[in-house]
Amino acid sequence: MADLQVAPWTLVIPVKRTAIAKSRLAAAYPQHRPELARAFAVDTTAAALGSPLVQAVLVVTDDPLVAADVTAAGAHVVPDLPAAGLNEALLHGATVAAAEFGGNAIAALSADLPALRPAELTAVLAACTAPRSFVIDQPGTGTTLLAAAPGVALDPRFGVGSALAHQASGAMPIELTAIESVRRDVDTAADLAHAVQLGVGPATADVMSLVLGAATGTEGLAC
Questions:
Q1: Which residues bind phosphoenolpyruvate (predicted)?
Q2: d(CA 193, CA 181)
């Protein structure tokens, strides 16, 4: 079995078009929901690229603004040619990753981890020594990262109850402590508040400044 502590990694990050992404944030952030979704993806991508174990990040998206932002950050963009859902996008990205970065381990990473810390991601990737591993999200039912050793099929099963689905498929849960930033995906206003407490990346922080400005009637002056 490959030793993933020294294997380089290619990360696949799927990003839904921001016009329809993060619908559960709409009530709390009606004006800034698309901007928040875009910022989450940018901060997640930048943090992932900051890990010394990550050789490349492939962002699977059909959103042109996200594509431009993550390309500027150093990621590769893969069009969502299947356009058939999250797992299909990840399978497409993993296929491209295996072709372009053969021999690398591959991990699917959620795009909504605005507080992601490169050091915590590095610790997680170093702990992925099983053929397939995964990280359970903060609520305890979902998945924020699914990893596969070189040559092992990713077999993503994201969706409702994905933690149990991934474990049932043979993936091993990563049980490290102090990896809150890897587990803190954002779907609700409460999730975002927790991410802000952890410390979000610059793109999300900029949007949150606009949110604060809008709430106080000084959006144009927010900094």
A1: 143, 159, 162
A2: 13
For residue range 138-152, list pLDDT tens digits in order.
Answer: 999 999 999 999 999
How much is the average pLDDT of 81-90?
93
Give the bridge partners for 75, in sequence order: none
**170 annotated binding-site participant:** no
Tell me how far apart the alpha carbons of residues 90 and 166 are, in angstroms, rounded to a whole number: 14
pTM: 0.92
Task: Round to whole Å and give the CA distance between 21 and 102.
Answer: 31
Q: In which band, very low, low, confident or very high, does the pLDDT at 216 lie, cut at 50, 70 and 90?
A: low
Sign of CA dihedral 56, 57, 58, 62: negative
pLDDT at residue 223, as a whole number? 28
**How would you class 180 by CB atoms within 10 Å of its CB: exposed for 0-12, middle for 13-18, buried for 19 or more?**
middle
User: What are the residues whose beta carbons fall under 8 Å from the beta carbon of 60, sequence distance 6 or more?
Assistant: 12, 13, 14, 15, 78, 79, 80, 89, 90, 92, 93
Tell me whether residue 162 is annotated as binding: yes
181 is in an annotated binding site: no
**What span, in angstroms and rounded, lies between the C-alpha atoms of 185 and 113?**
5
Strands, sheet with 76-78, edge to edge from the N-terminal-most edge strand: 76-78, 54-61, 9-15, 105-109, 143-148, 132-136, 172-173
